[in-house]
Amino acid sequence: MKHSRYTILFFFSICSLCFGSFKLLAAEEGQGTPNVILIMSDDQGWGDVGFNGNTDIQTPNLDSMARNGVRFDRFYAAAPLCSPTRGSCLTGRFPFRFGILAAHTGGMRVGEITIAEMLKKRGYQTGFFGKWHMGWVKSEEVSTRGVYSPPSHHGYDEFFATTSAVPTWDPTVTPEGWEKWGSTSGEPWKGGFPYMHNGKEATENLAGDDSRVIMDRAIPFIEQNKSNPFFATIWFHTPHEPVVAGEEYKKRYAKFGKARQNYYGCITAMDEQVGRLRTKLRALGIEKNTVVFFCSDNGPSDGLAKKGVASAGPFKGHKHMMYEGGVLEPACAEWPGVIPAETTTEVRCSTVDYFPTIAKLVGYKFSSKQDRPIDGIDLMPVINGTVTARDKPLFLGYRRLYSGIDGKAIISGDYKLLKEAKKKGRFGLYDLKQDPEETNNLASEKPELFRKLSEQLAEIEESCQLSRDGADYRY
To answer: What's the total number of domains in the chain?
Structure first.
C-alpha cells in the first residue's frame, strides 16, 4: 500500500513539474494573455519625474512603479513631438513609414496594424482614453489640415478621446490669460466639448483635473473586463499647454512661482491617477496578470524648458529638437511577479518597441499578406538582462518641409548622427556614451563614421518612403 501511495505521489509530482515547465514554455513562446496598459504623458521631460532625480516635483506613484519594475534610463520617443510618436507606439514603426510626420498633418491610415487590432485577434477587449492626435475624433470636424481617423477605426472597442490638446484643469474652458491658437480666455475650449465617447460628444463629468476625467472612464473599462484580457491605452494631456493645476495642487508648491505651481501641480495630479490605477489593479486581484508601461511622447515644451520650468534633466534641447532633450523620455514598466523590482537598463529602447514586445507576449505573427517592416525590438530580453545592447538602429525625426523643418537622427550603437530640425540645420555626430550631453561634435574628427551613418540613414529613409507610398499595404 505504501509503495502504491508513493507511486501516486511521485506521479503527481512529475505532473506538477511538467505542468510548471509547460507554463514556462508557453510564456516563452508567447502564448499568454496578460492585460496590457500603455500610459503616456504629454510633453513631460526626462527630468520631470522623481525617479529620474527631480526633488521638486512630487511623483510618488510613478516613482513606486519604476521602483517595483523596470526603469528605462535611455528610452526614446520616435519623434520630438506628439503625433508621430503616438503612431510609433501603436504600430512599432518609424513615423516616416506611416506618414504622420508632424502634428495635424494627417491621420493614422487604416492600412496600418495597431496593437489594438492585433490584440482583438487574440480575444482582447480594447479601450482608448485621452489624447488621440492621429486624426480628428469628430466626423463633422473640418479643418485645413488633418483627417477624420478616430480610435474606433484602429481596433478600439471603446474610446473616450480628444483630437488634440485641452487645458489640464477644466478641459472644456479656455484658461485665464490664454490667448493662443485662436482661443479666448474664459470661452469654451474648442466648442466646449472636446471629448468624444464612442462617437458621441461627452458632456458630463468634465470639470476639474483632466487626468482624473480620463481615469474616470478608464477604470470602469478595466472593471468590466477584469475577467477577460484587455488592452487599455491611457494617454494624458498633462503637462502639455495650456498647463493649469487646481488650487489644492498649486498649494503643494506654494514656495514656487505661478508657472511652476501649475506645471508641477498638474504632474502631481496626473501621478495621483497613476496611483489610483495601480491601486485598482491590486484591488481587483489582476496586477500580476497586467503589464503597465509608462513614457512621455517627447521632450519638455520649448517655452517652459527655456524658462527653466520644465526639465530635460542633464540633456541638451527640448521638444522640436533632435538633441537628446527632445527625444529622450522618462519611462518605466511594472509587471509584478514577472519584472523584478529595482530593475534598470541603459539599453537604448523606444516607443517603436511596444508593438513587437506585446506581439511576442501574446504569440502574434503577421499573415503573409500583412507582413511589413517592424522597426522595434522585444523589450523583455532587455528587461531580463539577456540583451545588453540594441541590435538595430533607431531612426528619429519629423518634417514640415513647407517651413524648412526636416529634423532627423540615427542612433547606431553609442553613436548618434543628427540633422537639426530648423531650416538649414547643421549635422552633428556624437558619442552618446562618452558625451550624453552632446557637447562635442565629432563630424570632422570621424569622417568615415559620419559617412557610414549617413548611408544608413539614407537607406532607412528610402525604406520608409516605400512603406509610406504603399509598399506594405495590400488591396
So the answer is: 2
